[in-house]
Amino acid sequence: MAYDDEEQLEALRHWWARYGRGVVIGLVVALVAVLGYQQWQSWQSRQLAAASADHSAVLAALDQDEVETAANRVAIMQQEHGQTAQAALATLAVAGALVETGAAEQAARQLAWVTDAQAGTALADIARLRQGEALAAAGKTTAALDVLQPLPDGQLRGRFLELQGDLQQMAGDARAAAAAYADALEQTTGQRRSLVEIKLNNLGGAPES
Asked: Is the dihedral of CA 180, 162, 192, 86 positive or negative?
């Protein structure tokens, strides 16, 4: 039995001499990966917490009609937490306040940032729609029409088409506006549909039943 134990011990020494270094390296790599992932999760949690705090601060400033203070805070958020939804939502809120104060072009620039930062998301489409509205308020009809393209699929498509019709009417193209409103009716329900019908009727169109 002792002989067998000695053989097994020798075999183990041989195996360790051959593979031990690789095993140690593998364990170290695995440990580093685990620790790195934990640190990354912790960093993400801190970032989200900070972004949430900044978002709350922006809304608080807007509640006090401190639009400039809110805009300054948003600028910091865009630099430090630019990939978070909180930064996008805070920017949308500030842009809305800027439009109300008459700073429509500044609002449009803020909304363009959201479109870029949240590309491919629903927030980007919301930002594009509001950017189009802001540019329209600033009298930038052609730029507003460009922002609306391409039209998104889904629930916002009707709103995009309605705004497209508004802009085309502003540009003096009643035929194109009527066509946009007619297309918007197919994508719109509820009270909004009634509004689009009124716009189409004012242009002499007849909504489909």
From this structure: positive
The answer on pLDDT for 168 being more than 50 is yes
Provide the whole-model pTM. 0.75
Q: Is 200 helix (H, G, I), strand (E, B) or coil?
A: helix
| Phi, psi for residue 189 in degrees, rounded to 5 | -130, 170
| pLDDT tens, residue by residue, 44-102 | 566 666 777 888 899 999 999 999 999 999 999 999 888 889 999 999 999 999 999 99
Residues 111 and 119 sit within 8 Å (Cβ to Cβ): no
- Token pair, residue 61, equals 């400033």
**Among 102, 165, 113, which residue's Cα sits nearest to residue 139?**
102
Residue pair 89/76 in contact by the 8 Å Cβ criterion: no
pLDDT in the model for residue 209: 44
Residue with tokens 């939804």: 85
pLDDT for the residue 208: 47
Alpha-carbon distance of 207 to 209, in angstroms, equals 6
The token pair at 71 is 């805009």
Name the residue with tokens 């900070």: 50
Query: What is the end-to-end Cα distance of the chain in Å, rounded?
Result: 95
